[in-house]
Amino acid sequence: NGKFSLKNIFFDAHPGDLICIIGPVGCGKSSLLQTLTGEITYFDGKVRLYGSFCYVPQESWIFSLSVKNNILFGKEYNDRLFQRVVHATALDTDFVQLSHGANTLVGDQGVMLSGGQKARVNMARALYRDADIYLLDDPLSAVDAKVSKHLFEKSIKKYLHDKICILVTHQIQFLQDSKKIIVLDNGEMIQIGTYEELLVFSSTFAQLLEDINQHQQEQQSISLSDQQSIVDSINSEKNKADEEDINKLPKNLETKQEGTVNLNVYVSYLQAGVGVILGLLLIIITFGSQQVISIYSNWWLAAWSNDESRRSQNSTNCMSI
Prior knowledge:
The protein has helices spanning 29-37, 67-72, 79-88, 92-97, 115-129, 145-159, 195-201, 203-243, 263-272, 276-312, and strands at residues 12-13, 18-22, 48-50, 53-56, 133-137, 164-168, 180-185, 188-193, 318-320. With 321 residues, it is α/β, with parallel strands linked by helices. Helix 3 (79-88) crosses helix 5. It starts with 11 loop residues before the first strand and ends with a strand.
């Protein structure tokens, strides 16, 4: 009916297999992973996941707790496992820079992490769960080349060496390490095979590698151009400021004071609005509700995750589609 759909996709994977999924933007790579997790309904065919699985989405997310709790996600703390995960995701260097290390509060109520840091916290959360099957939606795109290589070597190749790993990626330099490569186009699997097989027998695969490489170079060029524009803009503003007479004062000066705000100012503000008693009551209710909602949301996420682990703990480790 003219709607986008996934079709003609079939493959199986076993423990130790790394399956890479590549294709142009919008071809259905993320949709395929979401179909495997059950987030997207399929109307024909079969999807079979034997064992527990862990899905790492392309959009990283964290909640307002410590980095440590973001990684544990409700699971019991194991120091040896935690340190292995932190090293595999290159978070140990970040912990040195954070004020309280792994116990630093992040999110809306704490330190704001960069996109690359969020991606690595999400990856660490997945590794700590020790699932049987890992569905990774392009986690390497949010970090620089050096960290990307570290994540692939330490997290995917080494830490997950005995797991089933389905990796969506645009990093063509890692494709040679995969067991199989699935090439998607417009929701359809057009090629599947090893890196050597596709490179020799598929002109489509070779052209796609060239297109991906060109796109990466363009993105890097755009990024460098944006950075240079920012530097030029800052220098331009600085030059303008130097040319102005910094000793010239405006004709009409506003009065100002420095120091703490007197309590009477807050009381007057409340009296001018809804009244002191009602104002204080609303403030207490607002802050109380915020804490209740925050605690409940974190509890619900942890309970939901643990329920999935209990549901699949007796399953064997295999998958097919």
